[in-house]
Design a protein that fits this description.
The structure is a single chain. It is built from eleven helices and ten strands. It is an alpha/beta fold and 307 residues long. The chain has an eight-stranded mixed beta sheet, sandwiched between helices. It has a two-stranded antiparallel ribbon with strand order 5-6. A hairpin with a 2-residue loop joins strand 3 and strand 4. The chain is globular and about 75 Å long.
Length: 307
């Protein structure tokens, strides 16, 4: 799948091994989508809140907040998702407050395996189908990008709707899980995007994760994002004796060259292991990606591929 086709989707899940930069890739895709003037929602799933500091927000909660032109963010909270789901069934907030808004229900939500994930996926399903106006027939968001949990937890979250649908064969919960599963399996609307580094352990884990997604879910794949590739350093040409500061510079140069060689080796392995995937290679960012402005160069480099 070419990068430009990715932005014709409705829903993207971005995941990978912890530490590979999946949140940075999620933010990059959201900024690219916003640059295309698509109304975009960037979603965290009950996360520690790594996206808010990038946009200089105090925090991102369960209610959508504006992050940038055409871009909003939300951090899904399972208890709020549960409240919204129950209210969609009983319709009366007083009934919810009387029977469900207490510590016993909160403990129940925490204790039941997979319930948190099902509730959050249900909220994502609701966000995807929401309309600005039923008369105009225009969706609230053009694209929803989910910074999904890392490998392992992320896979189990995506498997939950199928488990619930098989376990609960009738009733509203069965129907709800079925609708979520249909959205996840809809390859016209939804894509799963893997992020990796060009290093041994992340590549091995990415391959295992992609194999598990393929055989244990019906989701379609977007491009594989290979993050933080070191570009080949320029040759040093310093004549004469080196002062201490030049020795330090030379050491950094040698370190960068070793990383380049390591990345080049594993890039060949990526091409072999992920033969059927389109790939997006993202260069190493020496400054880091801690603020929105730090993404500007990457956005400019990629915008021609998506417009």
């Amino acid at each position: 799948m070419c990068l430009n086709k990715l932005f014709n989707k409705r829903l993207l899940f971005v995941s990978g091994k912890g530490g590979v930069g999946k949140t940075s890739v999620s933010v990059l895709l959201a900024l690219l989508s916003a640059k295309l003037k698509k109304k975009t929602l960037l979603v965290e799933m009950n996360a520690a809140g790594r996206i808010a500091p990038i946009f200089k927000c105090d925090s991102i909660g369960h209610d959508e907040v504006a992050l940038a032109p055409y871009l909003s963010g939300i951090n899904l909270l399972p208890k709020r998702c549960f409240e919204e789901y129950v209210l969609s069934q009983v319709r009366f907030k007083k009934i919810y407050e009387l029977f469900f808004d207490n510590k016993y229900v909160t403990n129940f939500i925490r204790a039941v395996p997979g319930l948190n994930e099902l509730l959050m996926l249900g909220k994502i399903y609701d966000l995807e189908k929401d309309y600005k106006s039923r008369v105009m027939g225009k969706k609230e968001y053009d694209l929803i990008i989910v910074d999904a949990p890392a490998t392992g937890h992320g896979l189990s979250a995506l498997e939950v709707p199928k488990v619930v649908m098989d376990a609960v064969t009738v009733g509203p919960l069965h129907t709800h899980a079925k609708h979520i599963l249909e959205l996840l399996a809809n390859k016209e609307k939804t894509a799963f995007c893997m992020v990796t580094l060009a290093e041994e352990m992340p590549v091995c884990e990415a391959k295992e994760y992609s194999r598990a997604i393929k055989y244990r879910t019906d989701m379609g794949f977007g491009p594989l994002f290979v993050n933080a590739l070191m570009e080949k350093p320029e040759k040093l040409n310093i004549k004469g004796s080196l002062k201490n500061d030049f020795k330090i510079f030379q050491a950094y140069h040698e370190l960068a060259n070793k990383r380049y060689q390591l990345n080049a080796t594993h890039r060949k392995e990526i091409d072999r292991l992920f033969d059927g995937f389109s790939k997006v290679f993202l260069p190493y960012q020496f400054k880091g990606l801690s603020e929105q402005k730090d993404f500007g160069k990457l956005v400019q480099q990629l915008i021609g591929d998506v417009s």
